[in-house]
Amino acid sequence: MSLQTFTKSISLRRPVAEVFAWHERAGALERLTPPWERVEVLEQTGGIRDGGRVVLRSKVGPFWSRWEVEHRGYDEKRVFRDVLLKGPFAFWEHAHRFKIDSAASCTLTDEINYRLPLGFLGRAGSAFARSKLERLFAYRHAVLAEDLAMVESYGSVRSMRFLVSGASGLVGRALVPFLRSQGHEVIRLVRHKAHGPDEVFWDPEKGVLDLASVRMLDAVVHLAGANVAEGRWTAARREEIRASRVLGTRTLVTALDRLRHRPFVLVTASATGFYGDAGDKKLFESDKRGSGFLADVCEAWEREAAVSRGFGIRVAKLRTGVVLSPAGGALAKLLPLFSAGLGGRISSGNQWMSWISIDDMIGAIYHAVLDQRCNGPVNAVAPEPVTNAEFTATLAHVLRRPAILPVPTAALHLAFGAMADETLLASARVMPGRLTESQFYFRHIRLEQALRHLLGR
Which residues are CB-contacts of 438 (< 8 A; sequence separation ≥ 6)? Predict the structure, then answer.
């Protein structure tokens, strides 16, 4: 098959030097990878300058393919290229071209020349490849534009050193490359032996965490905790959920207290489960806690974090709703059913669901670090919560599938027991009061807008 060309451009209201420098930072590649793609970066060396290499593997359907790419043709503020050495294409060369439009703006053009393997794929293969490229670069350009606009909205932010727990979880996997692409250093707390200066071992349940080897920290983001939606809530499982949050937070806070130079802020994850089942009532940070196991856990969790205030650390407790991403969590679990046309509302569908896109979730964390008005509880949810019936109908619409198979309450109780009452059936119409008051910019206010971005639809 002959060589084909795909080109897509975007105008950016930032100086070319800033846009080019963004691409040179650690985390840029991962930040630009759509969450619906199964991509694992195995190795990165040398950055984007000539001779830099990237090794990754990607999955299409049931098949994994390995890519080995070398960077060539580096010309600062003008162009750099990715050339495929080994991979699924017969030929692949991606040129990133930067053109100055004015002192404060530029145009980025992605130009890809490629040849498909196995010439017999013909037109069908060509159309499939072009469709994937169109979805990929529409997503990349949207993320890049929004991330650069965020830089402008916060003004000059110095490079900071972050400590992050739960970095391997859904939110952590998105947060770490975002912070690095913003020019910050990230140190991750890990449960295995540390493999470099960007990792520190901890055993949260046993109270083991020594930060003596870590240079001065600026901010800590605490995301670690057992998944509440996995398995039935047996007595042992309840204790595991509680301990992972209470003991983990206590271990972290105790270690921070030992530091000579303490971070100025601790952003810790909590959950909208704090409010319990509240029906149709709009809930703000000033509302009291509800009843139930999750409300108990959230209260204890937040109490442990608040201890940090006693030694001069600002604490922002993010009460997080359902984080939407096809890379994990609730949306990832629902996609196979809804893609097959087998989805539907849960029970009556009248229960309120407070959601937030993964991009706004990491944006809210960053905002909580930078904005001192984020002190105490902060509802990390989109401004327009929806009922479960609205959510399922919107997801089916975006996927162009029917949603006519409701899940009865009895079936949920049979499958999940008490967990169903506090997660799937509870109604929490939570509003982002503090984020709104502190002028946080939401990328995704409406559910359909968020789903189309996250799913490339």
Answer: 367, 371, 373, 374
